[in-house]
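Subject: Protein entry, chain in single-letter code together with its fold tokens

Area: Proteins and the way their chains fold up in space.

Attached in line: The record itself begins immediately under this heading.
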Amino acid sequence: MKWGFKMSKEKEEQTPEAVAEEVTEGTVEAVDVEEATEEMAKSADMEEIEQAADKREAKELQDASENDEEQIDADAIENEVEEISGAESIEEEAEENTEAEKKQGFFSRLVAGLTKTRDSFVSGIDSIFSGFSAIDDDFYEEIEEILIMGDIGVRATQEILENLQQKVKENHIKQPQECKELLIQSIKEQMEVGETAYRFENEKSVVLVVGVNGVGKTTSVGKLAGKLKAQGRKVVLAAADTFRAAAGAQLEEWAHRAGVDMIGGQEGADPGSVVYDAVAAAKARKADVLLCDTAGRLHNKKNLMEELRKINRILEKEYSDAYRETLVVLDATTGQNALAQARQFAEVADITGIILTKMDGTAKGGIAVAIQSELGIPVKYIGVGETIDDLQKFDSGQFVNALFDIKEDSGEEGETEC
């Protein structure tokens, strides 16, 4: 209390000027504090503004970065699409080139395969056209002899000559040399296959393949399976050639190559039972084509022909909704004997087409014309080698061009080998 009293007394003793000075100093200090406070507030506001600016800048940078990334992604996608499109175009072009190469390769092999026929047949035709100065009966008789000797057959030869004579008359042809192109055209017309010849490729079908042993029947079945599979068809094979040793193993190997299913039986089993099981499998697996390889049926063996009739009855009963195709495989090297085989098979089965094999080793290529003319059965496939690509659909124009060695690309006649 004494201390407080003393301080009060001292205050009382201060002069007015001293008091005013203290007040002034306090006011100045208050102003300084206020100014400092304002400066701090301004500084805080500036920091907030700077932070907000930094945030906006960061947001803008992020947005810009995202836009850049989106643009990069869009550009990358566009480039990828362009690359894919380019790759697809290259792939399609490569496929087209490959297909063209295969076709040209087959034609070249066909030309080579028909060399023996060309040597014995076309050279004789050429000698007639160059050796006669007038178109008369002797001229036509010489052509007739050459055609028959070339295994074209009597009926086909007569029809070709009648067609030729009509064309000569209509076009007022006087010189023998001008007849060659007309003869070639007449042979092509004699061998044309209708547009519906390969109907079995486009709907649910069962294809029965028949033929004697040694003609390349099982090999042809395997090749045909490979070609159908390549077309996107689902194929089931029936190994009904149970009488020939190792026939099942041979077909199994072809089934493996083609990537198709095969139904078989033990050696010596009933072929009819194998076909029956194969029909059930084809139905269950929703197959597009059932290809049946049958035992080598000699046309002069009555019991084997009866077995063929039995298989037909099974197919008619168990697979009646499937389109039926029956192909007979013939060896072109046997000439007129192949025609006799086809005729015998036609008596016990509804033959719808011919597979003509081994054209690369025969001088009797004219049999292809004879079979179609004599029996009214078209040659649908022709084989000139061992690979799948060596079995091709028969093209009468291509065949005759190869026979006369006419270049397909230009249509101009090549040099005839003599």
Observations:
- The first strand starts at residue 205 and ends at 210.
- DSSP finds 13 helices and eight strands in the chain.
- The CA atoms of residues 201 and 228 lie 7 Å apart.
